[in-house]
Amino acid sequence: MSSSSEDRISKFVDSVSKLRGISYVSVSSEGLPFKAAGIQRQGAEYIAAISHSLFTELQQISKEVDLGTPAWMKVFLKDNTNRIYIFPYDKFILTVKYDYVLDKLIEKLIENLVKGIRIICQHCGADLTFEVYKCPKCGSSLTYNVKRCWNCGADVSIKQCPKCGKYILPDGSKPGFITLLILKIKSIFSK
Ligand SMILES: [Zn+2]
Ligand SMILES: [Zn+2]
After folding, report:
1. Which domain of life is it from (predicted)?
2. 152 C-alpha to ligand 1 centroid (Å)
3. Which residues pair with 26 in a beta bridge?
4. Which ligand approaches the C-alpha of residue 137 most closely?
5. pLDDT by residue (tens digit) across 58-101?
6. What are the structural domains, with CATH classification, of the chain?
7. Cα(33) to centroid of ligand 1, in Å?
8. Distance (Å) from CA 49 to ligand 1 centroid
9. Residues with beta carbon < 5 A to ion ligand 1?
10. Which of 18, 138, 142, 186 could form a disulfide with 152 if both were Cys (CB 3.0 to 4.6 A apart)?
């Protein structure tokens, strides 16, 4: 296991566990707890073991029926307000229990982790890969690399870095002069 994937997992766990509506985040390796937030040690051990065997079983079943390798599994709980997302990353298995209203956000944050996406502010170097951006129109929680709000459709292709306040594009790069000019003109006429 590379140290960079451990570093990414740490950042993911730290950011995600701070969100409102997250019950816990658990990371296991070979069925043993590696890192956890929101649960006590004993709970973490139990979740690590269960998640490991659940995912191993799922992989087995998928293989038996020629479905290939599963990317993730999602458990819909009977109370209908919470969901559990279990997925592999490198040598680890991650388990996130969250409020269903966070479904899209959790999916996007996990996608950023698994696909190795990095969003670094090119002005100040802030790592925004697992940070949450609030849509200025509807207040929905989004990831920094979206161009449009997935709730209201607002154009959010240019955002302000939460650390330095400067304008950035979805990949963290600096927008060009013309792009900024258009943004300024738009903001004048929308007042
Ligand atoms: Zn919105
Ligand atoms: Zn910045």
Report:
1. Archaea
2. 4
3. 36, 95
4. 1
5. 999 999 998 888 889 999 988 879 999 999 999 999 999 999 99
6. 3-117 (3.30.450.30), 131-191 (no CATH)
7. 37
8. 39
9. 135, 137-138, 140, 149, 151-152, 154
10. 138
Q: Is the dihedral of CA 106, 111, 116, 119 positive or negative?
A: negative
How many Å lie between the centroid of ligand 1 and the Cα of residue 117?
Answer: 23
d(CA 23, CA 73): 17
Widest CA span in the chain: 61
**Which residue type is seen at 161?**
C
Global confidence as pTM: 0.90
Q: Which residues of 114-125 are buried (b: 16+ CB within 10 A; e: fewer)?
A: beebebbbebee
Burial of 159 (0-12, 13-18, 19+ CB in 10 A): buried
